[in-house]
Amino acid sequence: MCRREASTVTVRSTCTKAAALAAGLMMATAGAAQAAGPSDAEGDISTKGLPQCIEAWDDAQGDVHVVNNCSSSYRYKVVMAFAPDLSCQTVKAGWEHTYDDPTGRFDGVQSC
Q: 50-87: string of b/e by CB count within 10 Å (b at 16+)?
């Protein structure tokens, strides 16, 4: 029910129990989460233009993960160095997108 496969850019979307719980908690405190604002701290390009409840990282296998702990959906794109950026995607509240070893070096995500 929470897992689906997307045919574009080899992205896997999952809604884990932890993500669903986090989304429920975020919905309970939506005002505080939305008031937190973008995480554009100096030197932090990983979530440029997105609220702090969006997390993004790459793992040791080279996969890129984008997690939405917010109470609403957001559009973003994965920014790559040495390769074209990936297309804009929408990540629903409580969902995670995983990109299987995209070409280039992961430079972060930004709002679309």
A: bbbbbbbebeeeebbbbbbbbbeebebbbbbeeeeebe
Please name which of 1, 6, 2 lies closest in space to residue 22, comparing C-alpha atoms: 2
Residues 56-86 pLDDT 10s: 999 999 999 999 999 999 999 999 999 999 9
pTM of the predicted model, to two decimals?
A: 0.66
Cα–Cα separations (whole angstroms), residue 96 to 13, 35, 43, 83? 5, 22, 24, 23
**DSSP letters for 17-62:** HHHHHHHHHHHHTHHHHHHT-B---TT--TEETSBTTEEEEE-TTS
